[in-house]
């Protein structure tokens, strides 16, 4: 029988890579998209013809329960979230309702319907927040520092409670930063690769950036979604920290991106104090050894390869856009 994967947040970066993975494994893939966000379907690109879309308001518990009952999913991947962390300060309550509310409603629906559906909750390294030690594992205490992290932590505990109290097969993947050519341009990786490509093509001449010494554990989104799927195929439902285990600075990123296009970054990059975030922690780095051991998972794409792929994709995109703007394509 064909397995069904239900995905919230399907139009985001992770939704795209996860859908590709699941379709390749023969799943029927259904994306839950709120009626107000139907225009985001264009972001599915080549997947639009291959996945099904179910229009439902993620804040409507009865409608979500109906969707789950009708679709009888084998697996649910709850990825929906406003992904850009700083924006959560502007709407803490909306962030909480979307992240924690959706998880709670989906878990309750699965429980009430008595389904054997396996549930993946997209958690985040932001739940560690104010870290006191590095690297972080599944045993590290949680100290979120922003509304996004707090909401993700609440969703994480809600999932744990459903697993412990009701015996649901539910897992949380505590994912570190993961990037790809589909990362939105407000994130530092994409901001940099896009700028390097644009400067190379003579479309702009400068890049303003925040703290060059900021560090993150940056992996490839395609590798991280593989871990999500593996979690739900395991014999027991457990939580996993997913990251590369390697820290790089924003300076490393800039240097790698500009060297892909043969430019010396120091000639083009300036720092802007306005872009420096206060009170940040730069020791957010994963200890993914449990996932490596139990799920036989390991990241396949190295940092330099990831940056190269993103720069090449941005070069291609900018050339295509530019050609179409000047009418050469028509
Ligand atoms: P985040 O880890 O989810 O906040 O992902 P981001 O890509 O937005 O930020 C990653 C790191 O890069 C953070 O430590 C930022 O403070 C740092 N950073 C430095 N300069 C910039 C910048 O110009 N834009 C962004 N978005 N981040 C920057």
From TrEMBL:
SUPFAM superfamilies noted in UniProt: NAD(P)-binding Rossmann-fold domains (SSF51735)
Active-site residues, as the UniProt record annotates them: 176 (nucleophile)
Keywords tagged on the record: Lyase, NADP
Molecular function via GO: GDP-mannose 4,6-dehydratase activity; NADP+ binding
Name of the featured protein: GDP-mannose 4,6-dehydratase
Biological process (GO), any one: 'de novo' GDP-L-fucose biosynthetic process
Function: Catalyzes the conversion of GDP-D-mannose to GDP-4-dehydro-6-deoxy-D-mannose.
E.C. numbers: 4.2.1.47
Keyword Membrane: no
Nucleus recorded as keyword: no
Record-stated family: Belongs to the NAD(P)-dependent epimerase/dehydratase family. GDP-mannose 4,6-dehydratase subfamily.
Reaction catalysis annotation: GDP-alpha-D-mannose = GDP-4-dehydro-alpha-D-rhamnose + H2O
